[in-house]
Each structure stands twice: as structure tokens, then as C-alpha cells.
């Protein structure tokens, strides 16, 4: 059984092991494969039966050129990099890794919020730079400090990650509003479900935890921003295209949105002309919410089980049945 991993570095930069996969067949691991050069992916897949990818696209052209492929394992929850319809036509099962990063992604959303509220890193840097030593007073702060107790967090997308974020925020004394197409009993234990306009108008903090679908693409735009409170804080560590970036940049620069914490952008890696890079009070991190070692180990473990299930003739976590 020949297996190939097209872009293994972000999943395993050296602190995990591929041994469990290697035990299932002949495994070739590439750190990176071009996201745009289909010929490179075709050459590397060759006659492999199992292809494992994270962000390297698996297109119709690639699948047409690699008839040996019978199973595709995605090292992530999102599987939009694979032409799943084409794979289905060819009888190729595509499996993903669901629910591996719930705790990590929710934790990161709160970390961005707390950094916006307190600018901990900046103030530590200023102390190390000598500012406290030179201060005339026993303390100082360079940014407004924000207390979250009794403030309202609105969460758009209230699945596993949204609910975990809500639990943490509620533990800090925040009231939680939620907007989701599906309402659940577990969600009602944490939040008050409401319509989108009410959430936008009532929230001091808005966190995005929804999937990227046609009806959610650009859900944060000039129109929805106008409906928000003045001075709102926006958090997005879900998907970059949920936000119309120029509209958010304009709102940050005008002060309508006080601050944004973003771990995702529309094009990744970020382009130098992204308007958010020059926007006021915009915290941007390089898509790392998912990346604690514990989360990546869960990805590894689930992928091994996905491959084992395929080899046993009973694929699991299939996204293109």
C-alpha cells in the first residue's frame, strides 16, 4: 500500500511522529507541495493509492492524472481543498478530522480578546524597555484597559467551538448571545439564541465561529458593521472570507469597531496589500488557533484511524458519501 503526504510540515514540524501511518504501508512525506502547480502534485502522488493532504488542493485534473488514488485523508476538518464531487464520481472516499481543535480554538479566541483588553505583551515589552523604571507613578498603561464582566458576547456559529468559547466567556461574567441555524439544548444552557440583527446591535464583543458557506461569506461587511454597537470588538479565528476586509479596515480606522482579533484572513499566507495590515487596533496572528501539539496529535491519531478504517473496507468520517 503506497501512501503520500503532500504537505506534512504544519501538522508535524518535528515534534510528532508519522510512525503509526508508516506501519500501514509505504509512506512518503513531503513537507510542502505547491498550492498552484498541479504538475508537482501529480508527480508526487504518482501511483499512490492513499493521498494525505492538509492545504494542497486535490483537483479534478490531479485525480484524472492519478488513477491509482482510492482514498484521500484530509489533515483538517475543512475539506474544501478536495474536489469531493469528482472524487465521488471516481469512487474515491474523502475523510476529514472532525472536532480535534475545539478546546484550542476556543482558548485562542479568548486569548485574542484578553490581549485586546489588556495589551499584556505590549506592557511587558515596555517594562523591559525601561518605561516603568522611568515612570513618575507606581503604574501606567498605554491603552484603555477593559473589564469584561457583565459585557455581552455575541457568537455567530454556535457549534462545538462556539459553545466552548461561550462557556469560557460566561465564566468571566459575560452574557452570551448566539446566532445559529440550528438551536440545541447544550447551546441553550450557555447562551440566549437570537436573530442576527439583535446580536449585532446588542453585543460588546462579536466572535465568529461559523463555517464558510455561500450564505456566511462576507457576513461581516459594511451593512452588518453599521448595525453593531460603536466600539465593538470583533474576533475571527474561523475563516477569513467571513469578513469583507476593506469594510472592516474602514470601520477600525473610523473607530466604529474598536479592535479586531484575527487569526485568519482571506488569502493565506497574508498578502502585503491586505488593508487590515495597516488598520488601527488590528491584532493578526498567522492561523495558529488549531496548532497546539495536543490538537495536532489528535489530528494524527484520527488520520491513522481513518486510514485503518479504509484499509478494513469501512471508511469513517467520510465527507463525500
What can you tell me about this protein's structure?
- The structure is a single chain.
- This protein is an alpha/beta fold and 321 residues long.
- It folds into two domains: 2-100 and 293-311, NAD(P)-binding Rossmann-like Domain (Rossmann fold), CATH 3.40.50; 102-284, Rossmann fold, CATH 3.40.50.720.
- The protein contains twelve helices and twelve strands.
- The protein has a seven-stranded parallel beta sheet with strand order 8-7-6-9-10-11-12, sandwiched between helices. A five-stranded parallel beta sheet has the order 2-1-3-4-5.
- Helix 7 links the parallel strand 6 (152-156) and strand 7.
- The longest helix is centred in the last third of the chain and has 19 residues, at 293-311.
- The two termini are 23 Å apart.
- The mean pLDDT is 98.
Domains, number: 2
In total, the number of strands is 12
Gap between N and C termini: 23 Å
**Mean pLDDT over the full residue set:** 98
Outline type: globular
Strand order of the largest sheet: 8-7-6-9-10-11-12
Q: Could you give the topology of this structure?
A:
Layout: E1 2-5, H1 19-22, E2 26-29, H2 38-45, E3 50-53, H3 60-65, E4 71-74, H4 84-89, E5 93-95, H5 102-118, H6 120-128, E6 152-156, H7 160-171, E7 175-179, H8 185-188, E8 192-193, H9 196-202, E9 205-208, H10 222-226, E10 232-236, H11 245-254, E11 257-262, E12 282-284, H12 293-311
Parallel strand pairs: 1-2, 1-3, 3-4, 4-5, 6-7, 6-9, 7-8, 9-10, 10-11, 11-12
